[in-house]
Amino acid sequence: METIAIPVINFAPIMPEIILSIFAMALLLVNVFVPSEHKAYLGYLSLVGIIITGFTLIGGWGNPVASFNDSVVQDNFALFFKGIFLLTVGMTILISDQYFKREECNLGELYPLLLFATVGMMLMASGTDLMTIFLGLEVLSVSLYVLAGLNRASLKSNEAGLKYFLLGAFSTGFLLYGMALTYGATGTTRVVKIAEYVAQNSAVAQNPLFVIGMLLMAVGFSFKIAAAPFHMWTPDVYEGAPTPMTAFMSAGPKAAGFAAFMRVAIIAFPSLKADWSDLLWILAVLTMTVGNLIALNQDNIKRMLAYSSIAHAGYALVGFTAGNAEGTAGILFYMLSYAFMNIGAFAIIILVGKKGEANNNVMDYAGFGTKHPVLALAMAVFLFSLAGMPPTAGFIGKFYLFSGAVKAGYVWLAIIGVLNSAASVYYYLRVMVYMYMKDPVEEFDWMKLTPAVAICIIIAVVGVLLPGVVPAFLLNLAQQAVLL
Amino acid sequence: MVPLHSYLILSAILFSIGTIGVLIRRNAIVIFMCVEMMLNAVNLTFIAFSKHLGNIDGQIFVFFVMTVAAAEAAVGLALMIAFYKNRESIDVEDMKLMKL
Q: Do the chains contact at B98 and A235, CB–CB below 8 Å?
């Protein structure tokens, strides 16, 4: 047996995780002393933590540091994703307080759990060892199971939490079995060493253990990013979970799943690119088509956005299939703009909704445009961006993803993607038809725009429009980030 | 000395039993037990490989898997209790508030 040498540990690469964890644990303690009508202060405290963490990210750009015997690394790729996660969690916190007060479920545990989930996502993005990636994924998942079922009194929330838990744990089993078989075939869990082993022993590609391991890992990650045919949990969980948590789940963990999936596929198996590209091709087409077709038929707007988020994972998989610089930079850019547009849309859904998750149907938006022209305009911007129309970030992102696919020779895949994107316009425009072209049924007088939600909507509108008009800065960052 | 492939076949069988259990059983707790069985099948695989390769990484992985499984059990059982309080059942057939 080997002896374990105690190495000198450099904590710099996990500084953001450490700061957030400290804040989360402190908030758990502080929570005990905060009366339930003042839980919003915990939200402000966690925003402080998020901003401090954000500042620690900036210094790391451009100089990758690895630590813990190369099992975590803070490179541009990880930093870009960490930025996305911080943005997602920050915007989610801004929209949470109003919703949970209305639902009379004002639990302070919400904020520490969100921060712990963010720590998990960050570990997934910077993990370079299957063990770290697995741990990050589980820290994320366990927090998310609770967040989905947070509204204990609501039957739908109970059901969402339990379904997410059962299916999430099930998919973890597949992911782990894949990791175990890959470990057995290559003798290491370190992503870089797996790549070295595969490069030196090309015969391993014929080893059934290795092939099954790769496939099972792909299945596990597909569950996490909600790619068809492993998407069945998504609509139910997204519909049943509290609305701010749906916003969080559709933007953050999906990006984290992509981060881990990309790191494993691109770094560990570069020489087998042709094999997994074929697999991803099928996944991308299925995911886009299933998501869009079923979304056409949805009346509940949360459920519609759940199917739309499946379709968006499909678009990102198009860039993943291409596997070149444009495609992968496209995924990063798209995940960032998807966070803006999706959380923005959910902020409006929270405003329009009533207690008990009522008023969540597309029909309930009738006449919203005449009663609240500014908010309706913001919703229109988010929906246009989701549909991928210029001049929004959604258009630029899709453009990059599909042009990456064309450059890599996947012309048909890009065509299927564009057709899908055209079909998706129907269900986004349907909301707009109700907002602007139907007579108001209700007065929308229960709506209360709190400053926090207003800030979130403003951030989202700026985040959707600014990169849509001048994308160069963010695209540059994304391109620097994919030089893994 | 039991050869490596016996361990692998055993853990594959255990994993399959767990998977089939998840798919056909209707009680949430039994489903969760089947998931735990899948995780333990994976642990067996890790340890068998670790011994075979003379590499300690697999054993460390097993510790993490066990820890995570314990955390998952805590959260999962809490969710089941919340569900049972409202519905007086933990049958997955009763989880049908949201359908197409």
A: yes
